[in-house]
């Protein structure tokens, strides 16, 4: 597609439920990144994919967080047993070998 | 380890005046440096990057940034600010040794407020 697409754009979930966030990168972009942005704060790195492998998942905050990617296509970020501190905007970006990131508009997750 | 510091939470400037948003970085190898802008309720948009070459980099919307290796800085500048420049600005760095697709580390962001 023309840009990075994330869905849903907004998600409200009850504490303890699982959620799945989706990212469709730009076609042909080999690298895909997930970041978290809490209200009024900067971007916190979560995980990075090169193809469908994850060379760096050092930013995943706990074992409740996991992510996978199918080939050089869609990625899903799953948060199990959501907690209120998981409330944030989850941003996805993709990158070609030229190195610039293109970000999606994010998924705003609210845990109530 | 890589890190980025944006020492100002907010910068206020009058329309028509020059603006500077500060950024300093720490990286083991040579840095790749980026600036992004985030408008309310929208994703981040790329402004400019420094990879190699001329220390003064020109980007979108009239913005430019100067790479200063000795001061490990990459300040964002614009000669004449517009009210529409008001947004949240992020500086980011990647260690060049990680190649073109390694992760970017972002600063905490600086809110730019341009008043008419």
Strand residue content of chain A:
over 45%
Beta content of chain B: over 45%
Shape verdict of chain B: globular
Give the biggest sheet of chain B. 6 strands, mixed
Q: What is the straight-line distance between the termini of chain A?
A: 33 Å
Percent helix of chain B, as a range, is: under 10%
Give the low-confidence spans of chain B: none
Computed Rg of chain A: 13 Å
Averaged pLDDT of chain B, please? Answer: 92
Say what oligomer this is.
Answer: heterodimer
Described by the principal axes of the CA atoms, the overall outline of chain A is globular
Distance between the termini of chain B: 41 Å
Mean pLDDT of chain A: 92
Q: Order of SSEs of chain B, N→C?
A: EEEEEEEEEEEE
Tell me what the structure shows:
The complex is a heterodimer of chains A (112) and B (116). Chain A is mostly beta strands. Chain A contains no helices and eleven strands. In chain A, a hairpin with a 5-residue loop joins strand 9 and strand 10. Chain A is globular. Chain B is mostly beta strands. In chain B, the strands form three sheets. In chain B, strands 2, 5, 6, 10, 11 and 12 form a six-stranded mixed sheet that branches. Chain B has a four-stranded antiparallel sheet with strand order 3-9-8-7, with no helix packed on it. In chain B, a hairpin with a 5-residue loop joins strand 7 and strand 8. The model of chain B has no long low-confidence stretch (mean pLDDT 92). At the A-B interface, strand 4, strand 5, strand 9 and strand 10 of A face strand 5, strand 6 and strand 11 of B.
């Amino acid at each position: 597609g023309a840009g990075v697409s994330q869905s849903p754009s907004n998600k409200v979930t009850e504490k303890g439920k699982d959620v799945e966030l989706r990212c469709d990168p730009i076609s042909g972009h080999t690298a895909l990144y997930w970041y978290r942005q809490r209200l009024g704060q900067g971007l916190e790195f979560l995980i990075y994919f090169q193809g469908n492998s994850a060379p760096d998942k050092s930013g995943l905050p706990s074992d409740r967080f996991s992510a996978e990617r199918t080939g050089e296509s869609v990625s899903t970020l799953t948060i199990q047993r959501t907690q209120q501190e998981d409330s944030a905007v989850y941003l996805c970006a993709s990158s070609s070998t030229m190195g610039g990131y293109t970000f999606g508009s994010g998924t705003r997750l609210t845990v109530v | 380890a890589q890190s980025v510091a944006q020492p100002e939470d907010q910068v206020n400037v009058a329309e028509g005046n020059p603006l500077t948003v500060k950024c300093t970085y720490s990286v083991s190898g040579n840095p790749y440096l980026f600036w992004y802008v985030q408008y309310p309720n929208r994703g981040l948009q790329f402004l400019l990057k420094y990879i190699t070459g001329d220390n003064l980099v020109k980007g979108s919307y009239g913005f430019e940034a100067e790479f200063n290796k000795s001061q490990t800085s990459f300040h964002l500048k614009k000669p004449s600010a517009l009210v529409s420049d008001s947004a949240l600005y992020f500086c980011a760095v990647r260690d060049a040794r990680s190649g073109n697709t390694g992760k970017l580390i972002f600063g905490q962001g600086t809110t730019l407020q341009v008043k008419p």
